[in-house]
Amino acid sequence: MKAHLRDIILIAAILLIGGIIALVLLLTRKTGAFVEVRVDGKTVASYPLSEDAEYDIAGVNGGVNHLIIRGGEAWVESASCPDGLCVNMGHIRHAGASVICLPNKVIVEIVAPDSGGVDVVVGQ
Amino acid sequence: MKKQTITTKTLAFYALMIALAMILSYLEMLVPPFFAIPGMKLGLTNLVVLIMLYSRGAKSAMFINLVRILLVSLLFGSGVSFIYSLAGGLLSGLVMILLKRTGKFSIVAVSIAGGVSHNIGQILAAVLLLNTTSIAWYLVILWFTGTASGAVIGILGGILCKKLQNARLFEK
After folding, report:
1. Do B143 and A18 touch (CB under 8 A)?
2. Which of A108, B47, B99, B132 has the fewest CB neighbours in a 10 Å radius?
3. Per-residue model confidence as pLDDT tens digits over B117-148
4. A48 and A22 in one domain?
């Protein structure tokens, strides 16, 4: 009986921690402004979320992910990777949300206006 | 050093368990991602680790765990998938061993903690490999799916352990 109670406490604690993480993320989320594309950890492009467009992202090992930005949302429409998980990850619009393709090492992430991408390049 | 002997029964049992783990891994690979949540798995192979942990102890469980990660990655996976499996497998293995060692929790609770920590391990590996923290949301989803699948595996594991014990498969 005591073991039973301890089980419930442990499982409740696990669920509570998960809930707290979810709550923190939910409260701190902002509407995105830019779509940042990273390949192998390096930022290769940053597109405004407000402009409808389509891009082909070249990942590692010749992989390609087809990115679509439309109506304030971004998603990967098709990909060369065998599992196609990135396509299944759906549409993203909030800052911090991302679509990740592990085989191609491609990350598409929505970033907030203040932290986001390159706004203006001065000089050069 | 004391010479270690291994009985035929133990050898056969280990072989059976590794074969079972590999088949379950393969089965999981055939199933398309559940509900469009990539990375969400039932963790069927965890069933084997769980049974090993409760029948032969921590060392045997970790041994089977490592062997199946290595074999499955070699057969079906890539270098990247090996790192993810290893991160998830090692963390969940360790957590389950430690929790069981306390002797205070049931097999279901141990399995749930294992399921969640497996997903945490994989997310940690992804954070390090991809150099990003943007998968935090993903962690939340996998946190809860890990709890659910851990519960299913834990209940199954409990039943199987009892059956196997009755079949005297656990005796050395």
Report:
1. yes
2. B132
3. 999 998 888 888 876 666 777 888 889 989 99
4. no
